[in-house]
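Example 9 (inverse folding). The structure is encoded as follows.
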């Protein structure tokens, strides 16, 4: 295939080949831009939905730190959900230190706001079942948002 393309390029004048390549590049860049703008719209909708479901305290935490804390429905443990779609949930101790990380998310290609909302609802309504499907990861991994602790 590459040989056929090279042979075809040798047959056409250089200016024509460059025009065709430039046209293809413009179309590719336009397509990338359109996809990026669509992603930004989905991301904004996901964050708006998340914000609508957060308590005033959680919303303040998220606006300041891009993370918020939730309380597990059965254990009463505190979990910190950081902006992201995976390896973004941390179990906290009473002193605000990370004990363990938890990785779980809904199935599908979802934006961060949608994933974080699902994680919040899962921990606040059925913590035990959520942790049964979650994968633990070491607490030595730093939280995604490298900011001061939420008070």
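The amino acid assigned to each position is listed next.
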């Amino acid at each position: 295939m590459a040989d056929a393309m090279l042979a075809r390029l040798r047959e056409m004048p250089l200016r024509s080949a460059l025009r065709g390549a430039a046209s293809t590049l413009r179309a590719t860049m336009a397509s990338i831009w359109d996809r990026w703008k669509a992603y930004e719209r989905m991301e904004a909708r996901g964050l708006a939905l998340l914000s609508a479901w957060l308590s005033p305290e959680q919303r303040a935490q998220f606006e300041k730190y891009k993370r918020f804390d939730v309380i597990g429905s059965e254990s009463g443990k505190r979990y910190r959900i950081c902006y992201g779609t995976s390896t973004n949930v941390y179990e906290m101790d009473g002193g605000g230190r990370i004990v363990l990380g938890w990785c779980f998310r809904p199935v599908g290609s979802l934006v961060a706001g949608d994933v974080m909302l699902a994680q919040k609802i899962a921990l606040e309504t059925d913590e035990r079942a959520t942790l049964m499907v979650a994968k633990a990861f070491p607490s030595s991994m730093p939280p995604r948002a490298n900011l001061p602790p939420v008070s």
